[in-house]
Amino acid sequence: MKTSNNSIYDSILDIFDSQPLIWNKLLNKVINDCHSNELLNIAKKFKYTNNHDKYYFFTGLMQFNQNNIIKALENFSKCFEFNPNNKIFSTYTLLCALILKNYTYVESITNKIDFSKEDHSTLQTLLTQFQNFQNTMFVQTGQIKKESQLGNQIDATIRLLKPKVILDIGAATGLGSTTVLAESIINNNLNTIIYAIESEESTYNTLVNNIRKFTFVKPILGTLVKPNWIPSWHNVIKDINNKSPHLLKQFHEVELKKWYDYSVNQSDILSRKNLDALSQIDENIFDIVILDAGLFFAKFELQSLYNKTNCFILNDTISYKNTFNNIYLSNNFEWKKTSHSDHDRNGWSIFIRNSPLIENNTNIRTKKNISRHKQQILHFIYSGEPKNDSAIRAPQTITNKLFRFLDNKIDVRYYDWSDTHCRFKVNKNDIILGHPHPDTNSILNKMFNQECNHKFLLWPFHTYIESFNNYALKPAEIAKKLFAICGPYWIDTIDRSRFAHLKHKFIRIDNAIDCNIFPLQKKYFNKPGERGIFVIGRSGPEKGTTQLFNLLKDTDIKLIIAGNYSDDDKKILDNRKNSIFIGNIDWSDKKIRQFIINECDFFANFSISDAAPTTLLECMSLGLIPVTTPQCGYYHPSFFLLSLICHEHNAITIFNIQHCSNDQLQSMQRTNRLIIENIHTWDIFCNTIWKEIKKCFRSS
Which top CATH class is 5-137? Predict the structure, then answer.
């Protein structure tokens, strides 16, 4: 491969400046943690036998290990010259070429390598990951074409709105959305300014060159994401996995984590350089915003622009980037979805504000044509997507089931409980029903400051650890009624809590599940002495996981454990035999469900302050017998109850469940199933709330 040392050196600096995290990890994988001394010994062996291709191959690997990439490239190139048909040699030369961004050489090598062979599967994975990363983070070609569906709709939207100011977030090289926007402005003879934002410095330089011909397009290097907005990786991957069908399922979690780390690093660099994009723009209102930038931060970009924008154009609405923004705007009464496609590209949608923002002489945003709602409206505030009918876990199930139920009876407007930016209007005849939130700027706390017909709270209620519910005290005192999702234990003991003076407001509601999704599946119990316990959940002071693991660590009963736990909790069971951690599970996975049902006879938790665990109801419904504390909310005779204070009682209980008769277990199982079928239903849950709320509605 013919390349000057200077150009190689410049390329290396460029690649490591722009992509240090991804490449450090890739290099470690390429050499498979080999030691340089071992590689050198192997190389010398082939040198003495005149196997020059193998000699240069192994010295190349050694140079990779030492991160001396120029030498590695030279050695691989020589190796390739000696044996151009050797696929292993070709592949490592290819990886060098990738790092040096010599894409012409990459293409020629790729055409000569057959990745179908089994021995190349790891290298194919590496190459695929590189290409995925490059295509996602360093877009070089225009992704949105003028002749595409989205391109046509962008042009139609510009003709409709005749915008004065457009913001293009994620402009990349300027050959996609930026060019489509600019050409539409020219064709429609409009006087418009376009701000094109790009966060990758190398891509930004290309953007500047590509849009020189459009004098009304202003390129900006920067980001909208503030460091304190960045979500944790735990929350990101939870968002991805909880959405059904799973988003980005074509990528491995390890690969996505690399992308996330890189994005966080880039955001941090821009922040340290004070490259805040909006601070570089002297505009109060954007007529159109194209949101097509950060894979992981689009939700926060929308929040920062929500009160400044009249039209959002979202790209990648079914592949995570804008999935949640699409859901949010689709369920927001302030916006109308004017066009969308789930099939063009990775989905896109266009939203126009029903009452556009305008500027008056003092540059204060106002609204025109605000309609007065003569009809009474229920403002429903909870968590998750209200129209996700495939949800099977709380709180998403509560949101979906209750929204669908109420929407058939009254006019419902839905808001996410964590929202702090959404604009709203509450009329005097309206009703608010929502989940309290600790943030004083949350939408419920803002709404509760408005005058309206009546206000209701709906949330999981438990009081053993008082700090978990203190934030609900203030709105609880304002509300007319308090719908408490909890077992009877928490109402029976309410006099010991800070909510005692509000006891008259409480209406207890049993949590619910769909027993058709969780049928009685366990048909028999294992023999005495061979029974197993299933644990599912997470670490947390209210969950009592530490206490439960300490109780079980000295027993020999079989344990199957699902969920996420802290390292400290997992260490408790480090040396325990007969324990299996299976991580997060999907109940729709028939194999894993059958494995749990076959191996386990009991569901155990050690709730310290838990309203009404959904996992308890699911396992009861499947046929496992609960072994739990009254502080899970329930203390049915068909449970084996544990104590928060008496370790001896708990040890005896764990021993006894191993040796009680099958007849007793079957009787408890039948009772528990009847409880699920007759108490924990969505019909009862929704009608209990509706019975109270409908008293407040009257003819307009």
Answer: mainly alpha
